[in-house]
Write a structure and sequence with these properties.
Elements: E1 2-8, E2 11-16, E3 28-36, H1 42-45, E4 55-56, E5 61-68, E6 80-83, E7 86-87, H2 93-96, E8 107-108, E9 116-119, H3 122-125, E10 126-128, H4 138-144, H5 147-157, E11 165-169, H6 173-184, E12 189-193, H7 197-206, E13 210-212, H8 216-226, E14 232-237, H9 242-251, E15 252-260, H10 271-277, E16 280-283, H11 288-300, E17 312-315, H12 319-327, E18 334-337
Parallel strand pairs: 11-12, 11-14, 12-13, 14-15, 15-16, 17-18
Antiparallel strand pairs: 1-2, 1-4, 3-5, 3-9, 3-18, 5-6, 6-10, 7-8
Helix pairs in contact: 5-6, 5-11, 6-7, 8-9
Bound molecules: zinc ion (ZN).
The site of zinc ion (ZN) has 9 residues, from α2.
């Protein structure tokens, strides 16, 4: 089949690779209904994360099961499924504690920017729908696989609840999903920190009540003005840079919570500053599998439309253009049709 391979920074090719096969008896092979490019795919694309040779890209996926290994019990060929970007057994102590992204058998999904993909630990990883969903729901279901699940986790660990005041740092796709999640969880006030017009509009459409375009100290001052010097209950840090993390910590009120879901690159924290700041911090790769059944139901009910975050749709064969568009910020997130 033809699939997406990244050879190095800026070098994404759509080329012939071996068809995926059942390797372990717990594997499934799915035919992708659609796939997409993640903001985290841009780290190696921009050379900001070391990569070792050609990599089969893609970890956000939904599709139809075409084959299962002999030990797979809970999904069968013909079913429509969504899975997390972290594969997990869903039975180990960490999974049972709700942290499937730290599963003792954890693997990170790869190879999903392709027509077919192998999903390890299929029983634990995949969630099937009762029926084949209509095609107009595919982008929204695809979004639950990572980007919505990650924004949701950010809001969850930032302790967002009914009536909360919230700041979302970062207007990438995850930040925008964080706004949507905070709104859905009942937040009263959602301040989106965004400098880009189109993203500000989308943030408002997802439920942002205020926009702060300033960054750094000026951005913190602006949030302080908006909250009468108190700070907010919950902050979602959806970038992963030092500036974003500093902004996140300083926008929270004492006793407030920071959910950080941007993969930190070069972020350091001062122990004593954290001690006196009195903020809760929780982050990491989102245990999307915990939220997946609920998020899929909210999409199937028509209650959530996270797929609005895709502002560019391309055929899979044009995946390299999708990377370019996202790298150059011409696109928030690119959907690839298979
Ligand atoms: Zn596990």
């Amino acid at each position: 089949m033809l699939a997406t391979v990244m050879y190095g920074p800026g070098d994404v090719r759509f080329e012939n690779v071996d068809d995926p096969e059942i390797v372990e008896p717990t594997d499934a092979i799915i035919k992708l209904s659609a796939t997409c490019i993640c903001g985290s795919d841009l780290w190696p694309y921009r050379g900001l994360q070391p990569s070792q040779g050609p990599a089969h890209m893609g970890h956000e996926y939904c599709g139809v099961v075409v084959e299962v290994g002999r030990d797979v019990r809970t999904v069968r060929p013909g079913q429509f499924v969504v899975g997390s970007f972290c594969v997990s057994d869903n039975t180990c102590p960490h999974c049972k504690f709700g942290f499937q992204s730290s599963c003792v058998q954890r693997e990170f999904m790869t190879g999903a920017q392709a027509p077919y993909a192998r999903v390890p630990l299929a029983d634990g990883t995949l969630v099937a729908t009762a029926e084949m969903p209509p095609s107009d729901l595919i982008p929204h279901l695809l979004a639950t696989s990572d980007v919505l699940g990650t924004g949701w986790y950010g809001a969850d660990v930032a302790n967002v609840r009914a009536g909360s005041t919230v700041v979302v740092v970062g207007d990438g796709a995850v930040g925008l999903m964080g706004v949507l999640a905070a709104k859905e969880m009942g937040a009263d006030r959602i301040i989106a920190m965004s400098r880009h017009r189109a993203r500000q509009e989308l943030a408002k459409a997802f439920g942002a009540t205020d926009i702060v375009a300033e960054r750094g100290d000026t951005g913190i001052d602006r949030v302080n003005e908006l909250t009468r010097g108190i700070g907010v209950d919950s902050v979602l840090e959806c970038v992963g840079t030092q500036e974003a993390m500093t902004q996140a910590i300083n926008c929270a009120r004492p006793g407030g919570s920071i959910g950080y879901v941007g993969v930190p690159h070069g972020v350091t924290l001062d122990g004593q500053a954290i001690f006196f700041a009195q903020r809760r911090m929780m982050g990491g790769p989102a245990p999307v599998r915990r939220f997946l059944p609920d998020l899929m139901n909210r999409v199937l009910d028509g209650r959530l439309k996270p797929g609005r975050v895709f502002d560019l749709t391309l055929p899979l064969a044009d995946v390299a253009e999708g990377y370019r568009a996202m790298d150059q910020r011409r696109s928030i997130k690119a959907l690839l049709t298979v």
